[in-house]
Amino acid sequence: MNETKSKRLLRKPGVMDKFPCGNTKLYELIRDGKFPTPIKIGRASFWDEAEVDAAIDRLIAECREAA
Fold first, then answer.
1. CB-based contacts of 36, cutoff 8 Å, min separation 6
2. Per residue in 39-62, pLDDT tens?
3. I need a labelling partner for 13 at 20 to 30 A (CA). Which of 1, 25, 50, 63 fits?
């Protein structure tokens, strides 16, 4: 059986639930390439949940290595 995870897009409040930080910090991480860029659909912004989860895992690993 080929099981695939369905794609899920998050709006900004959903991203902030997973990674609570301020707007400035979120967009700083995006600018620095440490967080995925949003997908624009019309005027709305969405983030791929799998990319967000992977970015959070990388940020955690970086913090643990630096400690």
1. 30, 47, 48, 51, 52, 55
2. 999 999 999 999 999 999 999 999
3. 63
| Two tokens, residue 31 | 């600018």
Contact between residue 53 and residue 61 where contact means Cβ atoms under 8 Å apart: no
Say if CB 36 and CB 48 are below 8 A apart.
yes
In the chain, where are the structural domains located? 9-66
pTM of the predicted structure, to 2 decimals: 0.85
pLDDT tens string 16-39: 999 999 999 999 999 999 999 999
Structure tokens at 8: 């899920």
Q: Which two tokens stand for residue 59?
A: 């940020």
Residue type, 1: M
